[in-house]
Amino acid sequence: ASFLASRGGRVFSIEAMPSIAEHLRAGIVENGLQNVDLYNYAISDPSAKDDLVMALQPWNKGGSAVEGNKPWTLTSGTTKVRVPLTTLDSMLDSEPELRNVLVAKMDIEGNEGRALKGATRLLREAPPCYLMIELQPQWLVRTGTPVEEVGRILSDAGYDVSQIQSTHPQTYRLQQRDLAACLARVAAAVGKSAPAALATSTVLEAAQL
């Protein structure tokens, strides 16, 4: 995303944890990144409520997760924060440039499956050409979206999912099976402008190149 942003691409960054979002916002201002938009939301599916509870992992804030997604999030004394929810399809209504995403990254500590379920229209109409996604089978089961189901969602969206395993946590670098057609679609959409990139973690970052 930073590479694309440096070449004029737009970056959509979505971060659930307010404290992390503050650090991101400070970095955006300090580096003068006028084409980076930061959203302080959690990403989920349409069935979720208007907000949810996030648990802060003090020794690794990037590992913070939705309450219940990881065993430690239920322990007493853990700092909890209630954050607003949205879906990628809802963002698509207000940010049509998300249709021009070239590269996407999703790493939301077990909530990847639910986030994908909230992106059915985006994945059907304009899936990113490349997708980096972290899949942790144990966490995905806890959220009701086993890795096999996530694989089916991604396959139906046109991605080559042959490398996805159901037993080991791993970050996968996927691409559209018809990559040439996807690249042509994005190029036609942006014209002389730069394409886009989408990245998610407890944060979701998306960039338009």
UniProtKB/TrEMBL annotation:
Gene3D superfamilies tied to this protein: Vaccinia Virus protein VP39 (3.40.50.150)
Domain of life, per lineage: Eukaryota
Record-linked InterPro entries: FkbM_mtfrase, SAM-dependent_MTase, SAM-dependent_MTases_sf
Coiled-coil zones: none
Protein name: Methyltransferase FkbM domain-containing protein
Methyltransferase FkbM domain sequence ranges: 7-160
